[in-house]
């Protein structure tokens, strides 16, 4: 069976622009090379300006997202405010590190705008070790392909329309070279004015 974190397949990409950020994931839910569903959502909303995606083992993704929803709701009740991106990242990292001896097989990617509408992206491994780049983060079984395309096409201070176009093209090129992810994608473009959700058509073979 190999690496259990690649059992179901996944691909996630988050990319920054000028006062905007985009996060995109594939829709495939499979068991190794067998495709079961083509509308499986791997991106979750915390606030209107803050999203996170999960790659990895689907059962762990569902369990982890459920536990995280409980923690974010509890935070809002106790503090009277919603989570900022940096706080969510620390919360996720802490949850993963708590289970480091029997980890969740998930690979989180966080994307959002902070209170000053500054783009924020982060990713981490299955025990919560974080990275905070300024350009893009990737996750899932297609991450090596996504790295190459994103390094080639990303440029600083892209406007929202340019960011959406670049992010989509990088993602489609990446998943076309990975048999465990794909079958279309869903993109969230987060701007100070709101969130745009767009379904992206991809190869279906």
UniProtKB/TrEMBL annotation:
Primary residence: cytoplasm
CDD domains the UniProt entry points to: proteasome_beta_type_3
Gene3D superfamilies registered for this protein in UniProt: Glutamine Phosphoribosylpyrophosphate, subunit 1, domain 1 (3.60.20.10)
Family matches, as Pfam families: Proteasome (PF00227)
A single cellular component GO annotation: proteasome core complex, beta-subunit complex
UniProt record, GO biological process: proteasome-mediated ubiquitin-dependent protein catabolic process
Entry's family note: Belongs to the peptidase T1B family.
Protein known as: Proteasome subunit beta
Organism, as annotated: Carpediemonas membranifera
């Amino acid at each position: 069976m190999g690496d259990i974190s690649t059992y179901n397949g996944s691909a996630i990409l988050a990319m920054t622009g000028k006062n905007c950020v985009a996060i995109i994931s594939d829709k495939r839910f499979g068991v190794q090379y067998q495709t079961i569903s083509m509308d499986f959502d791997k991106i979750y909303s915390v606030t209107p300006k803050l999203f996170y995606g999960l790659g990895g083992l689907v059962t762990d993704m569902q369990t982890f997202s459920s536990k995280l929803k409980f923690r974010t709701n509890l935070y809002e009740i106790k503090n009277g405010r919603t989570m900022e991106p940096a706080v969510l990242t620390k919360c996720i990292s802490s949850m993963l590190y708590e289970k480091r001896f029997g980890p969740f097989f998930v690979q989180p990617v966080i994307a959002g705008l902070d209170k000053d509408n500054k783009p924020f992206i982060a990713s981490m491994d299955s025990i919560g070790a974080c990275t905070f780049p300024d350009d893009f983060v990737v996750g899932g079984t297609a991450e090596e392909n996504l790295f190459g395309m994103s390094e080639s096409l990303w440029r600083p201070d892209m406007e929202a329309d340019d960011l959406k176009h670049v992010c989509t093209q990088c993602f489609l090129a990446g998943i076309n070279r990975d048999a465990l992810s794909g079958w279309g994608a869903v993109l969230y473009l987060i701007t100070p004015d709101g969130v745009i959700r767009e379904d992206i058509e991809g190869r279906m073979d």
